[in-house]
Amino acid sequence: MTLMNLIGLLSLISLIILLIIYILKPNYQQQFISSTYIWKLSLKYRKRKLPTSKLRNILLIITQVLLLLTLTAIIVRPVNITKEVVENESILIIDASASMRTSYDDGTRFERAIDLAKTKANETFDKEGAVTIVVSNNNPYFLIERGTVNSRYEIDNRLDNLKSNPLSCSYGETNLSDSISLCHDVLIENPNANIYIYTDTTISYVDEGIQIINVCTEGEYNFAVLDAYAESVDNYYTFTVEVAGFGRDENVNVNLSVYGANATDVDPDGVTYEFTVDVDLNNDTPKRVVFMSLGENQAPPEYDENTEYYYIEDSEKIFSYESAHIEIDIEDCFMEDNFIEIYGGTKENIKVVYCSNKSNSFFNGILFVLRDALKDRYHLDLTEIKSGDIPYRGYDFYIYEHEMMPDVTPNDGIVLYADPQKDTESTGFRVYGYYDLDKVSVSFTQEEEHPLLNQVVVDNITASRYTELTERDRNYEVLATLNSRPVLMVKNEENYKIVVMLFSVHYSNLTLLKEFPIFMVNMFDYFLPSTVDGNSFEVNDAVKVNSRSQEIRITGYDDTTTIDVFPSTISLSLPGTYTIEQTTYFGKNITEKIYAKIPKDESNIFPELDSISNPISAVDEYDYINDWLYYLAIALCGLVFIEWLLKGNESA
Question: Which of 289, 324, 344 corresponds to the end of one domain?
Fold first, then answer.
């Protein structure tokens, strides 16, 4: 048992005061007059009750003494300490973010941090203390938790292995506050443990109990490609690069190499273009470099002191490319961020055919709109057929309208049947005929939730005529009905991807609503989803992956990962190029490349942070003591009640 407030023992003086009160209390003499029978009888009863009165007085004194003792105990607060407090305990946090890879004469910052942590661990063991070591990367973990002097050899080995493993220091960011929070349980065991953080971050304010050991050394500097991307402007690519220098001012060459540019059927390999811009980097200020082509009669952009422009000649304009490599031509203390790759310059070609004997501007118009809206994902190759042979092979997306139905349903692409007027083999449904509502437009009713109806308000769609069926197979999902009859169906099987609109756009308001383009985009998203959204990510970003096949293979650094559950989320832990391969349900081989880059904040090798809070102040003392206050409070209430009973009897 431990007393938390020893000065509270002064309250025992109250017992002396209670004793004085009883000593000074008047003692009245009792006189008995037996002149009458009544007085004698009263004396007789009084003598009979006298022993009970004395017992009550004794119990009352004892109760009051116990009350004062209980109040004293509450003030001094006795507790049981449930955790053993080690006098000399150290928590060592080693920053393993990308900037800790900065290298100078005596090795990297990460290696210096490990050496310093090893020295501190041995100092703590020399004092019979305990050591906890945390590696602070994007997912902080314990290298050792509350190791004692008996763990000295083991800890030395673990630190040596950490130092020799080239992947121990990450290529991503870290959060030092999260690493400290990981030590919460250690601090509950011993709230007096000291925290030492070995980092390259300058922290403006640190709570008591935390010491920052900055492992930077004089002379370090870094030049970096912070970001780079390409965008198509008027059908030609513009490349934008963000660069910066930290710790030194210098003129550097920013080189752009474009590979596989402007490939055609005649020249499938394309050509290679090289461009170079000299950039003055100073004052740790990022600058932009823009490689662009000017259109006819287009004026150059306005001057910007933080932007350098390179104007691409007309003969070198780039409308497609396989990859682009951006690099700063200089050596520094952190070489991993001196270059970036850009992919996505060649889009997948999606062949779309629209077959209709009564073609309309609605489908034609929406296809041209989709070609522009989806240009960052695909190149839509549009074909329209109004008569003659109706294709059912060789396209990725088929739209059949009215009477222009194929003899056989295609099984190598997505099929949209719009107002089918005759039967086709393998569709899974048979047409009966029209049902005319006498020019009365009736609203559709949605039958179930489906990705094709994302953001589509089905009730807004009306039609005054629809097609009835004599039969349909069970594999069709009915998405919408009109008068309880199906008007919108979908089948999504491995060999057949079919959408059926059992109404004509000429007898519906669909094409006048925003639901029409949304529905068409939903078809591409559902049947032809992007494998990944984008082609450039930061290390440790969560990347959502989708597929048009049973599985995809992701290859990077001679390691291949197979994913067969979609959508999935992956994290790219190393910078560089990753190749994604899949064979679609229709037998089409697709290869895509993405790039993981070092987070731009890590390129600033002199990071700063406002503050770090000490979790010791947040540790609740109830986590490591058993308090008696609860039981003392119960005892106090009981004693007060007993005293009330005794006082009540005395009054009676």
Answer: 344
pLDDT tens for 463-501 read 999 999 999 999 999 999 999 999 999 999 988 999 999
> How many whole angstroms from its chain centre is CA 20?
71
Backbone angles phi, psi at 21, to 5 degrees: -60, -45
The Cα–Cα gap between 386 and 357 comes to 5
Residue with tokens 């079919």: 498
Residue numbers of the domain that contains 287 = 222-344
Q: Which two three-digit tokens encode residue 634?
A: 């119960």
Same domain, 387 and 481: yes
Q: Note if the bond before 420 is cis, omega within 30 degrees.
A: no
Report which of 173, 175, 193 is spatially closest to residue 183, judged by C-alpha positions: 193
Query: Are 379 and 367 spatial neighbours (Cβ–Cβ below 8 Å)?
Result: no
pTM, full prediction: 0.80
- Distances in Å between the Cα of 61 and the Cα atoms of 12, 48, 50, 147 are 15, 22, 17, 55
Residue 629 within a domain: no
Please check whether residues 355 and 432 belong to one and the same domain. Answer: yes
Give the separation between CA 130 and CA 152, rounded to whole angstroms: 10
DSSP 508: B
Residue 346: CB atoms within 10 A of its CB come to 16
Distance of CA 123 to the CA centre of its chain: 39
From CA 309, how far away is CA 237, in angstroms rounded? 14
Are 326 and 438 contained in the same domain? no
Beta bridge partners of 252: 279
